[in-house]
């Protein structure tokens, strides 16, 4: 953003909190096309990308399954797997468990692909 700002005016466009070091932001455009800072919390809130199970914002990699987006941990929660027993390959496809006929295969998506 190549604009000059008063310190008190340099705020997140979503939550109106001051821009501070240690917090990540993206540039968002207002209705007139001017860039404004938008904190990542507001960015993901704006995208309304939420876990279908816990309803929390998806900020890390997530699993897409049967039209739903879920944290990996929420998706795997019902499986009661031990530490290190996650049964996904890098594509997010389950390795050993067969899926119900007509079900989609899970697909893991990185948030980096969304930003």
From TrEMBL:
GO terms for molecular function: metal ion binding. Pfam families: LIM. Residues 79-115 are annotated as: Disordered. Keywords: LIM domain, Metal-binding, Zinc. Coiled coil: none annotated. The keyword Mitochondrion does not apply. It comes from the Eukaryota. Residues 1-46 form the LIM zinc-binding domain. InterPro entries: Znf_LIM. This is LIM zinc-binding domain-containing protein. It comes from Acrobeloides nanus.
């Amino acid at each position: 953003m190549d604009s000059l700002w008063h310190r008190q005016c340099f705020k997140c466009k979503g939550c109106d909190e001051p821009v501070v070091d240690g917090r990540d932001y993206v540039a968002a455009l207002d209705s007139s096309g001017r860039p404004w800072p938008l904190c990542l919390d507001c960015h993901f809130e704006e995208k309304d990308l939420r876990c279908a199970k816990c309803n929390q914002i998806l900020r890390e990699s997530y699993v897409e399954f049967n039209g739903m987006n879920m944290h990996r941990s929420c998706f795997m929660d019902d499986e009661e797997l031990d530490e290190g027993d996650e049964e996904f390959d890098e594509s997010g496809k389950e390795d050993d468990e067969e899926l119900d006929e007509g079900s989609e295969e899970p697909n893991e998506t990185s948030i980096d692909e969304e930003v």
